[in-house]
Design a protein that fits this description.
11 helices, 2 domains, 307 residues, Rossmann fold, six-stranded mixed β-sheet, alpha/beta, four-stranded antiparallel β-sheet, binds adenosine-5'-triphosphate
């Protein structure tokens, strides 16, 4: 990992709800994932970011046990994801990037059919979830719009009250109101149940308010892992107020994540008042601390710098 704020890594692999340990994946001779180190605990919402082809869906495939790792491990509930019991699997919910199949069934038929595999889904029909999905139970799956299909996919992933949600671009086809309401619903659900979510999206502003940590992937590797508390409190764009270059190199210990479009703007991960006075002494002019970084500006700078 070339840059980032490390979240705490506990010692025991079995203790983590989700744990990737030097995970790698090759398709034929093509290395698609390499050396992924990732942990998530109950209550975590992990935003998985990365350009197209970075490896996000492949990583999710390894975590839901669809893909066998080529190297390393993908552990869920302390066990290899490919060896989970039925009971373990019923504790997971997965929204694929595109929902396919069952085209001849009606919405209600599919809900009832899949519900048989999840006793909790029958017991605890969530009125809020169904109201949000807003689907006509009699419509055939093949006649649903793209957004309605995505709503159905989300409904099916959440109905059985999973402890772990793996969501591959779940909001890509949702309208703005649907996206906003889904993210609120998701946040409430995860908080009430102390469940965990790994969620990918290219709409960074959606994930920023809900994520507890962010993982940025680039070319199959983890480029950065950010704790969002630390990101909000300590990640800042800094530059001199006269937009001139720094008179001396930035002090050692100031953790630089990236440089910005403005060549003298620097994104730092561990900003605090001590750095402010130190830099004010070093430079001839006052140092300006810009507004706290947004996830989008940080992502663009980090991915742009590394590309
Ligand atoms: N079954 C496969 N066989 C060969 N290559 C594959 C296979 N599945 C994925 N890949 C390759 O792995 C790389 C990562 O793909 P992946 O779908 O994981 O990326 P992603 O980050 O989810 O992208 P996007 O944001 O576009 O959805 C891509 O180069 C893709 O072509």
């Amino acid at each position: 990992m070339s840059a980032g704020i490390q979240s705490n890594m506990a010692v025991n692999a079995q203790d983590h709800l989700l744990y990737c340990n030097h995970l790698g994946k090759c398709f034929a001779n093509k290395e698609v994932l390499r050396d992924i180190q990732l942990t998530a605990e109950p209550g975590d919402i992990v935003a998985l970011l990365g350009p197209n082809g970075a490896g996000k869906s492949t990583l999710m495939g390894c975590l839901i046990g669809l893909l066998e790792p080529s190297t390393g491990q993908a552990l869920v509930f302390g066990k290899p994801a490919t060896e989970l019991s039925e009971e373990d699997r019923s504790r997971m919910g997965y929204v694929p990037q595109s929902f396919q199949g069952f085209s001849w069934l009606r919405v209600q038929e599919l809900i009832e059919y899949l519900g048989q595999f999840y006793p909790k889904a029958r017991r605890a029909l969530s009125p809020t979830l169904h109201a949000w999905a807003d689907l006509d139970p009699k419509t055939r799956i093949k006649n649903l719009s793209g957004g309605q299909r995505q709503r159905l996919s989300i409904l099916l992933a959440l109905r059985h009250q999973p402890d772990l949600l793996i969501l591959d671009e779940p909001v890509a086809s949702l309208d703005p109101v649907g996206r906003r309401d889904f993210l609120q619903l998701l946040r409430d659900y995860l908080r009430d149940r102390q469940a965990t979510a790994l969620i990918s999206s290219h709409i960074l502003s959606d994930l920023e308010p809900v994520a507890t940590q962010t993982v940025i992937m680039l070319n199959g590797a983890m480029h950065a892992q950010l704790s969002m508390v630390q990101f909000r409190e300590q990640t800042r764009w800094i530059r001199r107020d006269d937009a001139e270059p720094w008179s001396r190199p930035l002090p050692e210990g100031l953790q630089v994540l990236a440089t910005g479009g403005d060549q003298y703007a620097v994104l730092v991960a561990n900003w605090n008042s001590a750095w402010a006075s130190r830099l004010a002494n070093q430079e001839s002019s006052e140092i300006v601390v810009t507004a706290p970084a947004t996830l989008e500006s940080a992502f663009l700078a980090m991915v742009g710098t590394a590309a």
